[in-house]
Structures are given as C-alpha cells and as structure tokens.
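testing teh design pipeline on a random one, pls ignore if ur not involved
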C-alpha cells in the first residue's frame, strides 16, 4: 500500500523531483541567498580578495547543488547557504575588530614599483610581470614607469597607479 506524500513536505524536506523541483528550489534558494546577502550588508558583496572568492565559489556550488541534486532537501540547502553567509559575516566582523584575524584573512597591498624602478623581488613574490605593470600604466594614461610615483598591487588583485 502506497502512502501519499504531502507536496509541501516533499518540496521542502525531500522527495520532489524533476523540472518542477529544479524550478521551485532554484527560485526559493536564489531569493533566500539574495535576502541573506542583503541582510549581512554591503561588505559581503564588496571587491573580492582570496577569502571572498572562496566563499563566493562555495555559495555558487551550494546553490547549484540545491537546484540540481534531488537528494538535497531544500531546507538542508538553505541551511548550507545560510551557514556560508553567516561564516562570511562572522569572519569579516572579526577581521574588522582583530588584527590577528585580519592578518589571516586579508593580504596587504604590495609596492611593485616606485619612482621609475621595478621592485623585482616583490614582483617575483606576487608573480607579477613587467608587462602587466606596463599594461596598467597604459590603462592609466602613462607611457613609461618613470612618469608615476608608485604601482601597487591591491588586496583585490588590481594594480593601482599613483601619479607623481
């Protein structure tokens, strides 16, 4: 004898399948993720460093699993998304308040060139080529390195060019 499954229970706690499951789970998980990110503030969506990139990839992977893996109940997926968002929030909250946490999570900007000279050891350590610095100079309207005071590799991987 077959027992009927409550459709609400099937959708939220497992048992739903097919195209409708993907549509419903996708919409609900997406809306929930956007709401979580909005609730945790602008910092969660700011320019990315390595830590932020890892969290972003994990969120994307979790969202895809919730949408496409029939063995993941919606409640479990939403819990996983919420956990990742809260961990991101807690780490950024702690990094604002603790230099030790900040040192573990964030990188410092690196001076790659100054007053017309490449800092080759810093470039080697950060794996930045002269060509990349030259491209950043051109992007900022300079022809030569000696036209600028500094070239800095920022925390988010962007090259900043500071004029003389």
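output:
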């Amino acid at each position: 004898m077959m027992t009927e499954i409550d459709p609400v229970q099937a959708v939220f706690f497992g048992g739903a399948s097919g195209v409708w499951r993907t549509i419903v789970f996708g919409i609900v998980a997406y809306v929930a993720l956007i709401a979580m990110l909005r609730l945790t503030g602008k910092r969660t969506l700011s320019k990315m460093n390595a830590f932020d990139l890892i969290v972003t990839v994990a969120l994307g992977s979790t969202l895809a699993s919730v949408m496409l893996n029939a063995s993941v109940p919606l409640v479990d997926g939403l819990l996983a998304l919420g956990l990742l968002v809260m961990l991101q929030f807690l780490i950024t909250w702690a990094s604002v308040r603790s230099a030790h946490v900040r040192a573990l999570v964030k990188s410092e900007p690196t001076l790659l060139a100054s007053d017309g000279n490449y800092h080759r050891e810093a470039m080697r350590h950060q794996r930045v080529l002269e060509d990349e610095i030259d491209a950043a100079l051109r992007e900022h309207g300079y022809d030569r390195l000696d036209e600028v005071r500094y070239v800095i590799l920022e925390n988010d991987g962007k090259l900043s060019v500071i004029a003389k």
